[in-house]
Write a structure and sequence with these properties.
Blueprint lengths: L1 E3 L6 E3 L9 H17 L3 H4 L2 H13 L5 H6 L8 E4 L16 E4 L1 H33 L4
Antiparallel strand pairs: 1-2, 3-4
Amino acid sequence: MNKICPRCRTVYSYSIGQCPNECTLKMKRESNRLYDREQRKNKEFYSSKEWRELRKVCKERFAGLCLWSLYKHNRIKKGRITHHIVPLSENKSKGLLLSNLVYLSDEAHREIHKLYETNQIQTIKEIKKFIKIWEIEHGRGV
């Protein structure tokens, strides 16, 4: 059985797993470049020692799991991104508050940002509700 790469249209076998022209890697690099360009104004913040340490604490707080996937979609997924519930662009003073952070998978992070475009307040309420459920179930507080 064969597969067609959506980027370069090369036909390759499913057994290979990914395009032999390394398109998956190239797409990931392009995506990272775009993300870095969008985040450039906060580059100093995201590279600070305080942020790196707080990210680790957030990951530990949620046991490395994506809360959105767990409670919204009933799936257990590893998280990868520490997300600001109230965006940094709206309130920088909440940037280093653990209570303003949640641990998410890449997919959940994209989904939440799409939901922010239509109803940010409702999405924030839902995230906070999931955090409260987690804290009750795991006996952890902020």
